[in-house]
Amino acid sequence: MRIIEMTATFGRLNKVVLRPGAGLTLIEAPNESGKSTWAAFLRAMLYGFPTRDRNSAGYLAEKNRYQPWSGAAMEGSIRLEWKGREVTLYRGPKGSVPWGAFSALWSATNEPVEGMTGENCGELLLGVSREVFERTAFVGQNGAFLSPSADLEKRIAALATSGEEEVSFSQVERRLKDWLNRRRVNSRVGLIPELTEQLSHVDAALERQGAILCQAQQSRQESEALDARRLELEARLQAHAASEKAQQAQRRREAQADYDALSAQSEAQRRAVEVLPSADILRQAQGDLTYLNTLAANERLAEKAIPEAQEKAHAAEAAIQADPYFAGMDPDQAAAQAQRDYDAAHQAGEKARKVFRPGFLLSLPFLLTAIMALYAYIAIGDTTPFAPWWGFLVLYAPWVWGGWGAAVLGLFLWQKKLKSDHSKLLQRYDAQAPEDILSKAAAYRDKRAAAQESQRELQTIERERDKLSAQREELTEQLLSLVRPFAPDVTDLFGLSAALSRALQQGENYRLLQARTQAAEQLLAALPQVDAVPAPLSSVPLQGDPDQLSGQLAAVRGELRRVSDAASRLRGELNSLGDPAELEAQRSSLLEELEKRQGEYDAISAALDGLKAADDALRARFSPAVNQKAGEYLSALTGGRYGKAALTRQFQALAQEPGDVSLRQDLSLSAGAAQQLYLALRLAMCELALPQTEPCPLVLDDVLDTFDDQRAKLALNCLLDMAKNRQVLLFTCHSREGELLRGTGAAVAAL
């Protein structure tokens, strides 16, 4: 199949026409100009839109994504060559359904193509399903990666076995594994583990019934002992609590005194720092002080550079004034004078060379004499030797020769004058040729330009010095104004720096004092108010650490709750276990079902092993073909750096360099090498998995974007070779590919 013309009103495209060539066609366009839209349009024209495609969070369905930006109805047509005849495809709106209308007509007769519908159009034209097309010949942006599909797997199986594309290994394997997993996934999941677990639960329940009563008796005894220990610990903790309240009252009095003292200090310090700017302003001022030193240093450098610039400007100006030819002129005046003198010298030289031609001057009197004799002959008509016309000739010939001599003398004098004028003009400029006059004018122009540039450099340096001086003075005044409220005696930069440092330190001391005061306040607030201190209990001694006693009491209470909960659980468990006779009947039923499911599991496992053996044989027959072809493409794409490639059943890509002992996974390759590997596998799959009659077009959208120039050149050579047998559409946002394809015969189209 070959695409002749596409017309699209689709997304950003509005009635745009694209005519690809028969071989490789390069479509150049910048990003966001519709390249990917063209690729999506071609796929939609061949296969339509996925019927189950719906909008979701963060995703827009294709039928909505490519609604025309112009507001027009979404529609398009493709003229293509198929089976030696031209076919025209059309899709457009049908009522409220976008892309619902479809037609396929023989272009020559305008008759429908029999059996071709909107649903089977792509499969009839290309010979493959949408999934196979997308995973082989349709390579979108960042889409060179291979992914499996059931349809692609069927075609691979057919290639390897020369069978029918009706059975997918992964589908059968998935179905058998699903049946197997329903019975047992592992030791914990599946019908068999579930039955085993149920049987174990029944056995455990029967065993548990005998142990529960014994455990209940032990729980009652343990609860009585724990309750006595609880009462003892509570009494000892009450005695410690009375003592702790007395200590708390003393700690609060001390904390109140500390807070009062710090509050007084903080208030005094606050009045001292009220006049200070914020810490951020002070730190900014320190930065400005540093910048002020930088300004002063730069000002000194500029001042130091001025004498040198002045000397350079004076020297350039002196060179202009000392010019012997154009002193006092501007470049245009000098050029005009030089051009006039050049024209005069050039014209004088040319005229001096042309005015005196000896050959012509010597022949001129003879020519005039012959003309006069011919005239006398014609006029008199007598041919005797002493005819009258000879007298006529003798009479006028001296006048002819005399006139000739006078003319020669005049020309000689004129030539001498021209040469003199030519020499004077050249001597004025010490020139050897008229062109030297223009060269001296150009040299004068360069000296004027150099003088102007030197003057501009001097002015630039002086302006920069003045600017730096003004900035320095302004910034100095700003900093002095900042510190005068709290350091009025500061007059120089040294005092300014010291004042800023003192202010920052004073502010920091105040913040530390505030923090201490706040901490004292928080401590005071955290201490409880003690209204009355109870008397200690004389009957209970203050023995043991209160924290340890509290921990012991909490542990005893926890144990009591645990024992009580355990007893409740035992009672509930005993009630939930049920009748022992019913448990025994359930156990017998579970044993029978378990035996049945185990037999099914063994039979399915044997079938899966046989399927895997058959698949291994299939892979052994198919893998060499695809790997050999992918290796050939990879070698061509990499210039021989990689000579082998492989594709696993899980569609994992591998490559091997010459000299390596094993294949490397794609993740271990560089990004460029990995892209080359994926492209090689894509091309191999196109050649092996797609029909060879009516070859399907290869669509590539920015697949060379990450390739460097060398990789791109090698890839284009491969595509050119493939384009001998199938149409190739290469979309790109770069002009590089067009330059590399120049002279190859590839078609280039610009969007």
Oligomer: single chain
**Distance linking N and C termini:** 23 Å
- Tally of helical segments: 18
Category from helices, strands and their pairing: alpha/beta
Q: What order do the strands of the largest sheet run in, or round the barrel if closed? A: 2-1-4-5-6-7
- Spans of at least 5 consecutive residues with low confidence: 158-167
Average per-residue pLDDT, rounded, comes to 80
Rough shape?
Answer: flat
Description:
There is one protein chain. The chain has 751 residues and is of the alpha/beta class. It has a domain at 330-452. 64% of the residues lie in helices and 10% in strands. The protein has 18 helices and 14 strands. Helix 7 (191-273) packs across helix 15 (580-637), helix 9 packs antiparallel against helix 12 and helix 10 (358-380) runs antiparallel to helix 11. The two termini are 23 Å apart. The relative contact order is 0.13. The model is unreliable at 158-167 (pLDDT under 50).
Q: What is the compact description of this entry?
A:
With 751 residues, the chain is an alpha/beta fold. It has 18 helices and 14 strands. The chain has helices at 35-47, 62-65, 121-126, 130-135, 150-161, 169-183, 191-273, 279-321, 331-355, 358-380, 388-428, 434-483, 493-526, 546-576, 580-637, 671-689, 709-722, 736-741, and strands at residues 2-10, 13-18, 24-28, 75-82, 85-94, 97-106, 111-112, 138-139, 644-647, 653-656, 664-665, 698-701, 728-732, 747-750.
What does the secondary structure layout of this molecule look like, with pairings?
Elements: E1 2-10, E2 13-18, E3 24-28, H1 35-47, H2 62-65, E4 75-82, E5 85-94, E6 97-106, E7 111-112, H3 121-126, H4 130-135, E8 138-139, H5 150-161, H6 169-183, H7 191-273, H8 279-321, H9 331-355, H10 358-380, H11 388-428, H12 434-483, H13 493-526, H14 546-576, H15 580-637, E9 644-647, E10 653-656, E11 664-665, H16 671-689, E12 698-701, H17 709-722, E13 728-732, H18 736-741, E14 747-750
Parallel strand pairs: 3-13, 3-14, 8-12, 12-13
Antiparallel strand pairs: 1-2, 1-4, 4-5, 5-6, 6-7, 9-10, 10-11
